[in-house]
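A quick aside before the break. I want you to see a complete sequence-to-structure record at least once, exactly as it would be stored in a machine-readable document. Don't worry about memorizing anything.
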Amino acid sequence: MKTKIFLTAFLALVAMCLPNFASAGLPEAVNYLKSQPQDAWITMALAAAGETNVLVDHLSSITESSYPTTDYAKAILALAAAGKNPTTFGEIDYVAKLKKYYNEDQMGDVVYLNDDIWSILALASIHQIDSKEAVTAKEFLLKNQNGDGGWSYLVGGLSDSNDTAAAIMALTETGVSASDPVIVKALDYLRFLQNADGGFPYNPAWGSDSDSSSDAWVISAIYKLGQNPAEWDKSGNNPLTHLQSLQDEDGGFWWIKPDPADPEKWNSKSDTSKVIIALAGKSYPVDYYEIPKPAAKLTVDKNTFNFGESVVIKVEYFNDNDQTWLPLAGAAVQGLPENYTTNEAGQASTTLPSGDYNLSATKEGFVTSEQVKISVLAPAPAPAPAPGGSIIFTTPTYCQSVEYDVWQNTCADNWQYRNVLTVAPANCTLTAEQENQRKRTCVALEEVNNESAELKPEVLGVKIASSSAEQLDKVAAEAGSIINGQMDNFIITGTASTVKLGAGERAGVLNSYKSSFGKAPRTQAEWEDVIRISNNQLPLVTNSAAGEKAKLEFKKVYQREAEIENFNDQTAINLMAYGLRPDKRDLNLERAGIRVFAGIYEHLPVSALDWDTVRAIAYSGVGL
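That is the input. The structure line, written in tokens, reads:
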């Protein structure tokens, strides 16, 4: 940071010492650009010239060309120059879109180098120069410097002045100094290209005429290095004097000097925007924008709790795109005796010893929430001595059953935790064993490839069974036993048709139901659907949102849209949407499904939807 501050101050001093012609013709060029159809380059140019209220509406959406990586990079650079947030200004998050073109070796198309250059500059403009995308693009750029010191827009292509200058600016942003051999060689290449008129050609193989675009790129690169382009003298001329010679009466800059003897020779003023950036003493990025971190908010439904009462903590973040608060998963809740992390619904729940607690939520990339104070009351005092002087001691009411959430996809002090969802009876105290079941040693991703690794007891479904009239009657009777209180706890006891699953998998069925419908089952009809899911049958009531979410997961796994008329595809969608349990499990298929899941999502299955996706991979029959 100190280096960047020093460089900025140094460049300002250099700019003050430049001859007046560095900005000569700039006002006329600005007026010319304002009359042209606006694009990202013009936005950067007007911002570089110090214009205020620069038009940016044209950047609210992007029509991808054959070079989508540079399309998004230019938009990010233009919005940063105009002081706008590129993650929220457009119809989509341009930064996230740009990063989708990262492929672990470089950015964008492996054939091109310019998409790596512009990705670096775009990420630098939003202070993400240390991101994996920028670091990878830098390494790719360094590996592909040509022997003459320059760069081409193509891997292995002939060097040219424009891409060499842009590469110099990109590498300078990554911390490569002006004295580094990489930059020294690149400058030697540019000096070799410089013509006697002081200007630069694009590529001698394409023609030797100096042009305004090449002049502008090289001038901006010279400024980036803290040098003065007026000192790049060649036969009494320099890049600035040559560039000024190409300005037309309307303020625009011709690409090459018009030839009166050949008025039909192609010429254009389309690169006037780059010229303005150079004449303004600017380089790329033209300016920088600090993307604000979204704020986190922690809430509880009340501030005072009885001893043994479950405390449900909710953490959300503010989404600028649609101005709403959304659940924040993976947030660490501070101020509790143990480590808790929010689940996919942005919640964590626990029972606490009596006392006062100051709670807050933190997560990397988010502003820490404000503190919320809660109090847990002390247990009720023991009763007074009974007649005769004896004292009757009371003991805590320990929980008979506990329903846990899924394991969280984070580790703290080498422990992996899960929250408590429900307890019975209400306000009971967890036993030491029940508390210990809340945590386990962290499971490494590599364990997925271990055939002996522990499998969760909730993995699923082969084919989707149909319900006969007799089965419907049995389902209704079993659900009735739950509603009428004839069964104490579905998870612990199970019904006649679900006892085969085991308590862990019955808990998983409830998690799948909650994931699908956003609520716990309460009515007769809802419990009937839980029993159907337990028995590899579709629920009678379906949820279109769950189905749409399943289609998105299908596309992520299989890299194509689901064909609903295809039996296997529809089976996969149903498994992902509702978590149907199989009649017969195959642990080998399930292990293979977990390996495939981990390879795609880069983490072990954690949520109900994760496990339902594993089941779809294992049992649907859809080929990968």
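Two observations worth writing down. The CA atoms of residues 56 and 357 lie 48 Å apart. Confidence is low (pLDDT under 50) at residues 1-22, 444-466. We'll return to this after the break.
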